Amino acid sequence: MTLELTNLQAASDFAREHRLGIFSPACYQITPPDPQCPIKGNLDDNSDKKMYFLPGCSYYDKTVIMRFRGEQWFCSETEAQKAGFEKARYSHNTHGLDFPGVILAPACNA
User: Fold this and answer.
1) Residue 16 belongs to what domain range?
2) d(CA 29, CA 54)
3) What is the mean pLDDT of each run of 10 residues along the chain (110 residues)?
4) Alpha carbon distance, N-terminus to C-terminus of the chain
5) Same domain, 52 and 95
6) Whole-number Å distance between alpha carbons of 9 and 87
7) What pTM did the predictor assign?
8) In this structure, are 41 and 94 located in the same domain?
């Protein structure tokens, strides 16, 4: 790793640890700002497909909402669908938390 990459990684780690910049609660969210709107609207890193996750779905707790990417919270499935999001069929860990890009389990079976 070059010195530049090492410095960038250190800056990223510092920002994440101290919840600064894009890692601040305004941009990087795991819990909904409004408890009445807990549905996570997430963009898949590999395809930019818009998916939504309901509480209790596989990997809901690991799905991060990155507001700066256009990800968002919804109060209802209808609201998510009107915004162009589809119910997640599989659980993708899209932000590299444990197993990047790996399909883990059925997510939101109705």
Assistant:
1) 1-27
2) 15
3) 82 84 79 94 88 88 88 96 89 43 45
4) 46
5) yes
6) 34
7) 0.67
8) yes
SS3 of residue 94 by DSSP: coil
Number of domains in the chain: 2
Model pLDDT, residue 94: 44
For the chain, what's the residue count? Answer: 110
Task: List C-alpha distances in Å: 75 to 22, 80, 83, 98, 109.
Answer: 24, 8, 12, 27, 19
Per-residue model confidence (pLDDT) at position 108: 55
The torsion angle over the Cα atoms of residues 90, 93, 47 and 107, rounded to 10 degrees, is 20
Give the CA angle between residues 92, 33, 44 to the nearest 5°. 20
Dist CA 2 CA 50 (whole Å): 35
| 101 burial level (CB within 10 Å; 0-12, 13-18, 19+) | exposed
